[in-house]
Amino acid sequence: MDNTYQNTVGEVVADDFRTAAVFEKHGIDFCCKGNTPVAVACEKKNIHVEEVMQDIKKLQSNATEEGTDYKTWSVDKLIDQIEEKHHRYVEEKTPVILQFLNKLCKVHGERHPELHAIFETFSHSAADLAQHMKKEELILFPRIKKLAFANKESFRPGMVFGPIETMMQEHEMEGDRFAMIAELSNNYEVPADGCTTYRVAFAMLKEFEQDLHLHIHLENNLLFPKAMKMEKELLN
Asked: Do the beta carbons of residue 106 and residue 198 sit within 8 Å?
């Protein structure tokens, strides 16, 4: 264990906003009681500090993958990456962000009415993304994996073209929604009267958008073209 447990909860969150979700999970107040050392906050909640530190360490060990050469990956590997990293990320982060945005609307909504529009837009996005990912995992992705091992006898036309077109239209809609959220939040700039929750919520929204951009890139620009090429080759 490093010395993070000796820092205050607020210092840890300020250093890495993602840790707010860890403290939230354990019921530790990182906003109003942010000046409490992590070890003391855990003691007050009757939580083993090692448990919290393990969650923080696991979160911070997730290295960035911007330099990864996804172009060389097979469709199976791309699908596994999309599901395990990006789909699970959306499922994990959406309830936390919704909770924070709801709190912001109650506390700051009167002075910052744009928060209500941000909350409503993200709520629609969260609901639609959940359905979108389910369609991919239950319908499109299994078809693409099956297509990779298909031959002219087992192949039937239209296995992926139609679903891919639908998914790409839905991707465009989500892109438009986050462009609206970025505009409403002035590119995630926290106002002068913004509290810690305000900063964390906007930072999480920004990270969510960045992850969504990579998520959509992997599908639109890598996975889908590979799948359509396979289908064309079987058609010919």
From this structure: no
8 A C-beta contact, residue 146 and residue 159: yes
In the DSSP assignment, the letter for residue 191 is: P
Which positions ≥6 away from 151 have C-beta within 8 Å? 234
Task: Give the residue among 6, 83, 82 at the shortest CA–CA distance from 39.
Answer: 6
Q: How far is CA 73 from the centre of its chain?
A: 22
- The per-residue pLDDT for range 156-171, each reduced to its tens digit, is 666 888 899 999 999 9
- pLDDT tens digits, residue range 73-102? 999 999 999 999 999 999 999 999 999 999
pLDDT of residue 105: 97
How far apart (Å, rounded) are the C-alpha atoms in residues 136 and 171?
A: 12
> Is there a contact between 214 and 86 (Cβ–Cβ < 8 Å)?
yes
Q: Which residues pair with 8 in a beta bridge?
A: 37
